[in-house]
Amino acid sequence: MFSQLLYRGPSIEVLHDRYAKQGRIDDQAPVTTSYEIHIDAPVQRVWELLSNPSGWPVFDPDIRDVRTGAVAPDAPFTWTSGKTHIKSRFAVVNPGQEITWTGTSSGFTVVHRHLLSATSGGGTRIRCEESMAGPLLVLFYNSAKLHAAIGKWLTAIKTAAEQ
User: Which of 59, 80, 126, 162 has the greatest number of CB atoms lying within 10 Å of its CB?
Assistant: First the structure.
């Protein structure tokens, strides 16, 4: 427990280049989760929602103040989720297949991956993986809370895509 309490993990640069860009999260981080959902909408529709951060507040009212330019590898963007302001950078932008970003907030680091695949019948399977690390993080946030947050996020995407 003590090691998780003080776990910093790799620097954001290492997380970005050697983890996110290489298709992985920090599995040693004290807060991790994965979540998968089926959406009754084509991959292209789901991709349109995910790859437009400026539109995220439309289907997730907890998100606001999104500032972004190009949605491309290494392009920065900032946003607020709840009370948390996050500085992010896209790591992988593979249209219709994967969008991954890294981010920092209050000394914590995050890797957030979305993997999309078409399902029979024209739907989309989306798998989300996330890791969070930083000293003292586990005192007020844990994997169960992250799992619930990712579930809420993916359900919001599902609702918007299926409309």
Answer: 126
Decide: 142 and 150 in contact? Cβ < 8 Å: no
* Per-residue b or e along 71-102, where b marks 16 or more CB atoms closer than 10 Å to that residue's CB: bebeeebbbbbeeeebebbbbbbeebebbbbb
DSSP 30: S
Q: What's the domain range around 10?
A: 2-162
Quote the pTM value.
0.95
Provide the number of structural domains found in the chain. 1
pLDDT of residue 158 exceeding 80, the answer is yes
What string of DSSP letters covers 49-96?
HHT-GGGHHHH-TTEEEEEE---STT-EEEEEETTEEEEEEEEEEETT
pLDDT tens-digit series, residues 130-139: 999 999 999 9
The phi, psi pair for 143, rounded to 5°, reads: -65, -35
Encode burial over 105-130: b for 16+ CB neighbours within 10 A, e otherwise: beebbbbbbbbbeeeeeebbebebbb
Count CB atoms within 10 A of the CB of residue 53: 19
CATH of the domain at 51: 3.30.530.20
